[in-house]
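Much of our argument rests on the idea that a fold can be written as discrete symbols. Part of our work consisted of pairing the sequence of a single chain with a tokenised description of its backbone. No coordinates are needed to read the tokens, only the vocabulary itself. The record that follows shows the chain in one-letter code together with its fold in token form.
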Amino acid sequence: MRRRIVVLGASIFSATLSFSQVKKQFSVDSNEKIEQIDLDFKVNSGSCFIKGGEGKELLNVYSNLQYDDYGHSFQKSINNKVCKINLALEDVKSEGLSQSISYRMFGRSDDEKENIWKVYLSEDKTYNLNLDYGVGTADIDLSGLSIEKLKVRTGSADVNIGYFENLNNPVPMDTFYVKVDLGSVSVKKVNLSKAKNVVADIGFGNLMLDFTDKSQVSSNIKGSVGAGNLMILLPKNGTPIKVTINDSWLCKVKLTKSFKRLSNNTYVNADYSENADNLLNFDLDVSMGSIVFKEQQ
């Protein structure tokens, strides 16, 4: 791992940076012997953007912060064609729980500098991603990236995940895992991930799962909702769907009119076929929160 300071003069990193210079860069070079990257990436605050990059590097990270404004820990190892990278970025002025709640209620003060993190991954390698966000926002564009496993955890950060350029996952994904504590997470075009398993764990936050694109593989979707909210968007027709819900009298569950009861707590739509190769099989549990299904208009 090499740390380099890059001065781009008056260059604009993006509209989001708003004329802020890129001050620091973390870079991990590629290697022909490496076939898979296991990336653990954690950032405790700020605005983070992840997408595929044009370069060959396995990882490139840019920021608008000064050297003394944040701390980091980094580990890298290569074994059996797998490169393991662990990178944690922490604001020196780390926010505690009370500040996190204040941030969600009132936002950031005008004179407080926003931390920007830009992360680029290689489109030529296969990744297992483990992403952890504390406070702030995150946008994760998976378009064209080869992802075998994805785990996203958020404390009180708001996270957008999707295939915003409509380029699906070149490889089958084993597990798409999302854990939401206090934040809000939106996952668009889940079907383009080609995930065999989708796991959602919601505490007090909100999660939206968009399955409106054509289902490419059979997927098992397992969800657990505490006191938060889960919204699931479905295609209007053409996709076989089965839903099993374990609920309580303290929760709210709303299905669309297209579902018919198959057995106790189990519902199917008109396209349902037990052996369909594009079946969406939902197994959901809710305590005090809500689960709402909506159809594409």
